[in-house]
Amino acid sequence: MLIKQFRVTFQDYIYEIPAGTLEPKEPPLDAAKRELLEETGYRSENVQFLSSIYTSPGILQEELFIYLAMGLVEDKSAPEEGELIELMPMTWSEIDDLIESGLLHDSKSLSGIYLARRRLGII
Fold first, then answer.
1. In this structure, what is the dihedral angle of CA atoms 91, 92, 98, 100, given to the nearest 10 degrees?
2. Cα 99 vs. chain centroid, distance in angstroms?
3. Which of 37, 91, 96, 122 is 20 to 30 Å from the Cα of 114, by its Cα?
4. Where are the domains of the chain?
5. Which CATH number does 2-120 carry?
6. Going by DSSP bridges, is the β-strand pair 2-7/12-16 parallel, antiparallel, or unpaired?
7. Residues 50-71: pLDDT tens digits?
């Protein structure tokens, strides 16, 4: 499940995996589940840690935690105020096409897609 989200920095919509910011003292797994529900309207009891990544270690200390959610169950989304998000359920082939066309170039999303495919054995 990808999302297409409006990003003010680019004044455009970009394709991404669901993601968000950790609340103070919030465990990354809890944040992953919360953001999945907020941004997609789906929840999962099968959320697996894949890896953590540094987004730009030369200038930032930001660390992202990447999870794979399986067995999605539809629930009610609750996007944050001002978030403009469109759900983009896609096949792996459609995701490959987005990447090859240059329409999906968000680093966390590319990392997450790669890690998920490795975990699932479909690389």
1. -150
2. 15
3. 37
4. 2-120
5. 3.90.79.10
6. antiparallel
7. 999 999 999 999 999 999 999 9
Rounded to whole angstroms, the Cα distance separating 116 from 123 reads 9
- pLDDT tens readout for residues 34-47: 999 999 999 999 99
Instruction: Provide the 3-class DSSP secondary structure of residue 6.
Output: strand
Mind giving me the DSSP string for 31-86? Answer: HHHHHHHHHHSEE-SEEEEEEEEES-TTT---EEEEEEEES-EE----PPTT--EE
CA-CA distance, 7 to 13, in Å (whole number)? 6
User: How is residue 22 written in tokens?
Assistant: 């950790």
pLDDT for position 18: 96
Calpha distance 36→48 (Å, rounded): 13
Would the pTM count as exceeding 0.85? yes
CB crowding 51-82: b at 16 or more within 10 Å, else e: eebeeeeeeeeeebbbbbbeeeeeeeeeeeee
| Residue 77 pLDDT | 80
